[in-house]
C-alpha cells in the first residue's frame, strides 16, 4: 500500500475547493458586465443585441422626425441618454450604440452626422459644441486577426470637459480625456489626453498651443 499516496489523497479531500472564477462562487460575468468594466467581451450577445436594437428604434424615430417638433425630439433624447442637461440640441442624423452610457451637460450642441459608439461611458460637460461628422469611439477591437474576427473587443471611457469646441470631422478614440476650454481642430484624430485650454490638431492630434487671453476678441458686451 502506498501510504504517501493515501495521505496525499486525504489532504486533497479535506482541502477547500478553489474558486476558479475569481467571483466567490458566483456565476461568470455577463458580456454587459465585462463591457462596462472595460474588460474584453464579445458584443454578439443576446442582452447587448436587445439593448442596441432598442437604441436603433429610438434613433430611427428621432432621425425621421421634423426638426420643428422640438419637444418630441428632446423627449426621445432623454429616453435614450443616461443624462441630458438643459438646452440640449442634436441635429439629425445622429447615431449611438446604447445611449444609456451617454451623459451630456447643459447647452450641448451636436451638428449633423454625429456618431458616438458608447460601449463605455461618454461624459460631456456644459457648453460643449460638436461640428458636423464628429465621432467618439469607445470600443477597441483586438489587434490579433483571429481574436478580432471572433468578436473580441474592449471599451474605454471618454470624458470631455466644459466649454470644449470639437470641430467638424474630428474623431476621439477610446480612453481619451479632453480638458475644459479646449479646441479640437477639424479633422483631428485624438488618441491621447488633451490638457485644459489647449488647441490640438492633426493626425494623430498634437498640441498646437495653449488658448490664452490673447485669443479674447473683446466681443462680450457688444
Task: Give the gist of this structure.
With 222 residues, the protein is α/β, with parallel strands linked by helices. It contains 5 helices and 20 strands.
Q: What does this 3D model show about the protein?
A:
This protein has 222 residues and is an alpha/beta fold. The protein is built from five helices and 20 strands. It has helices at residues 3-14, 31-36, 46-63, 70-80, 145-149; strands at residues 41-42, 83-84, 89-90, 94-96, 102-104, 109-110, 114-117, 122-124, 129-130, 135-137, 139-141, 152-155, 158-160, 165-166, 171-173, 177-178, 183-184, 189-190, 198-201, 206-210. The strands form four sheets. A seven-stranded mixed sheet has the order 3-6-9-14-17-19-20, with no helix packed on it. Strands 2-5-8-13-16 form a five-stranded parallel sheet, covered by helices on one side. A hairpin with a 4-residue loop joins β19 (198-201) and β20. α3 packs antiparallel against α4. The longest helix is centred in the N-terminal third of the chain and has 18 residues, at 46-63.
Amino acid at each position: 500500500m502506498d501510504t504517501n499516496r493515501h495521505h496525499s489523497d486525504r489532504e486533497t479531500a479535506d482541502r477547500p475547493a478553489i474558486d476558479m472564477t475569481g467571483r466567490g462562487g458566483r456565476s461568470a460575468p455577463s458580456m454587459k458586465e465585462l463591457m462596462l468594466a472595460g474588460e474584453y467581451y464579445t458584443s454578439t450577445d443576446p442582452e447587448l443585441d436587445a439593448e442596441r436594437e432598442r437604441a436603433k428604434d429610438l434613433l430611427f424615430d428621432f432621425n425621421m422626425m421634423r426638426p420643428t417638433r422640438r419637444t418630441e425630439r428632446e423627449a426621445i433624447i432623454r429616453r435614450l441618454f443616461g443624462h441630458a442637461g438643459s438646452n440640449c440640441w442634436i441635429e439629425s442624423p445622429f447615431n449611438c450604440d446604447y445611449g444609456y452610457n451617454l451623459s451630456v451637460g447643459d447647452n450641448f450642441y451636436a451638428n449633423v452626422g454625429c456618431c458616438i459608439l458608447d460601449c463605455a461611458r461618454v461624459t460631456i460637460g456644459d457648453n460643449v459644441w460638436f461640428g458636423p461628422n464628429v465621432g467618439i469611439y469607445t470600443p477597441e477591437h483586438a489587434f490579433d486577426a483571429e481574436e478580432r474576427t471572433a468578436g473580441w473587443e474592449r471599451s474605454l471611457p471618454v470624458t470631455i470637459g466644459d466649454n470644449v469646441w470639437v470641430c467638424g470631422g474630428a474623431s476621439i478614440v477610446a480612453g481619451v480625456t479632453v480638458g475644459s476650454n479646449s479646441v479640437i481642430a477639424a479633422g483631428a484624430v485624438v488618441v491621447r489626453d488633451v490638457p485644459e485650454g489647449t488647441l490640438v490638431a492633426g493626425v494623430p492630434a498634437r498640441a498646437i498651443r495653449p488658448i490664452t487671453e490673447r485669443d479674447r476678441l473683446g466681443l462680450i458686451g457688444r
